[in-house]
Every structure is written in structure tokens, then in C-alpha cells.
Amino acid sequence: MTEFEIFHLSNQIFINNAIYTVAVILMTALSFYLIRRSRELNSPLYGKVILTLFCSFPIFFGLQVASYLSTQQKNVSFQLSELKEAGVQISTIAEQYIVTWGQTAADGPASFGPDVPSIVMYGTISILFLAGIWAKMPEQN
């Protein structure tokens, strides 16, 4: 595979990842709306359980999409590094990509998993979901 083909395929994957990210954002917004409505209607226990289950989906899918992105970035670096080690002349952009993501041919392909900022972000959203569903509302005057 040539450098151009590697970058071309990775760009297509990045576009797919962006579309999935939009879907996760919409699901997250819907979850916050449903949490607000359940509070307004004073949802019963079974409603809170079902809403908790529903709110776990955007978290799972968000972490999965973040994993796809992180893995793709590292694997492009790995593929470019393999190309370089094979003696193919690569561009300075490809060199910088390898330096930025740091996955070389010696490291092997990247393992599937999200990056730390994504874990922190979705952990925070999880806490917001759980607090919104299960925490007591403050007294209103």
C-alpha cells in the first residue's frame, strides 16, 4: 500500500467516525432531555431503571467511537512506519504523523481502546446521567 492509499483510507474512516460521533452527541442530548422530563413528571422507580439503562447506551457507544478514532490514528502511524522501514521514501507529513502518534512498526498494530481524555469525558457524562436520574432534587421555595 502506498502512502497516498493509507491516507485516503484513513480519511474515509475519519469521516465515518465523525458521523458516528454526531450520532453519539444526539443520543447524549436525548438522554439529558429524557432525564429532565423524568424529573418533571416525577418518574417511578421502574422508569428510572429503564432510563438508566437507556443512558448507558450513549456512554458505551461514545467510548466505542473514541476507541475507533484512537486505534485508527495509531494504526495509520504504524502503517506509515512499516512503509518507511520497507525503504519507501515518505513525505515529511507522514514523518510528522509517525512522530505525533508514536506507533512504530516495532510496536505493532494498536490495541483497541479509548484514549484517556475520552475516558474522563464519558466518565463525567456518566456521573451527570446518574446524578440527574437518581439524586434528590433540591427543595424549591
Structural class: mainly alpha
Our count of helices gives: 4
- Fraction of residues in β-strands: under 5%
Q: Strand count, sense and closure of the main sheet?
A: none
SSE pattern:
HHHH
Morphology = elongated
Indicate the percent of residues in helices: over 70%
Secondary structure tally: strands: 0
What's the pLDDT, averaged over the residues? 93
Calculate the terminal CA-CA distance, rounded to whole Å.
68 Å
> How large, in whole angstroms, is the Cα Rg?
21 Å
Poorly predicted ranges (pLDDT <50, ≥5 residues)?
none
Task: Summarize the model shown.
The chain has 141 residues and is mainly alpha-helical. It has helices spanning 3-40, 45-85, 92-101, 116-134. The mean pLDDT is 93.
Explain what you see.
With 141 residues, the protein is mainly α. Helix content is 77%, strand content 0%. The chain contains 4 helices and no strands. Helix 2 packs across helix 3 and helix 2 runs antiparallel to helix 4. The protein is elongated and about 70 Å long. The termini are far apart.
